[in-house]
Task: structure prediction
Amino acid sequence: MIDYTLLEKQLTGEYRAAYGEAVKYIFTSSFSSDFTEEKMTELFDLLLTAQTNGKPVRQLVGDDPARFCRNFFSDYGIRERLLSFLHTLYTIAWIVLISMLLQLGSMEHPFGDFFSHRVQAGGFVVGCAIGLVFNLIVSLLRPVAMKNKKITTDAWAWIITGSLAVWIIAGIALFPDLKLRIPLWIALLLAAVYIAGYFTVRSIVRYRRYGTIRNTRRQLSKDSYYRELDDKNYERIIIESWVKQYHQLSKKGKVTEENFIEKVRVNEKHEKIGDIILNAVCLGVILVMMYRNAFVEKAGLTDTLIFGAVLSTFEFFVMRFYRKFTKQALAMRRKLVADCEAKGMTMPAYLNAWLEQNKVPASETV
Result:
């Protein structure tokens, strides 16, 4: 996902203000992520070019930013809304599939009771119905509300947040315990068929349009220019954390300018140890749950192994999501340390030079 705040920081003055209005507009809309990223990138390029060439932003936006936003995003039509709806169902199908697999793994006799076991689907139905109806109402009312100049984008954000809360409370009050039990195998089959069908159709469309089935939304983030901006954002976070750490330790007399880089290396080792401990804890949780399933719930060996496999799969994806960011941060730290050593500078001097070169305001200076 594109970091709109990072793009906004590349603009100044009235250009940044115009882009900020567009950011607020999209966050109070129901546009799909594909459409939003494409349009916001297009707007950023227009504003950046105008800023570089000294073209007044008024020539692009006019005197009414709200009207400009409505016009700029007006090509979000029926086709885009339908695709967004189908993608929402795709997400729901994955939630249903994972939930049903977890229920299957926790059953005492999953294979013997597979076709006779029934699950409570009332909560899913109520939740999905509230979400879909609310999204439809917001989509229909937003254009009308935005024509009223007294309703700003900030006010609209509060309106939809409050309305959603009311809808959720009403759904819980009206359907506190909706009795809707369906066979587990039907829920699994419907979710799996929809996921397979959606993925197949999406792959065909992507291949015909772009010549690849890969997610083209990530293309911009992998482009050298935007990748560089993203890297600088991560580096800035790391640099500022090191600046803060250096000040805290130097005030206590625990580090000097010359040996602070060794402290950074020690922190890296601690993070690796922490990662190993976290993996061990996750494994321990899985083993404890399997032990409980086998000896407390009196499930058989086969059922326990299936339960462990399902739980391990879930934990794997959670850890994969977490480690994606930790690996990225670790690689960035190593890059900065290597750059510091290559320049023959002390770490505090390197931090100062980096902040000065990249014009990053810091609350403290080394």
About this structure: Residues 4-72 form one domain. Residues 360-365 have pLDDT under 50 and may be disordered. The chain has 14 helices and two strands.
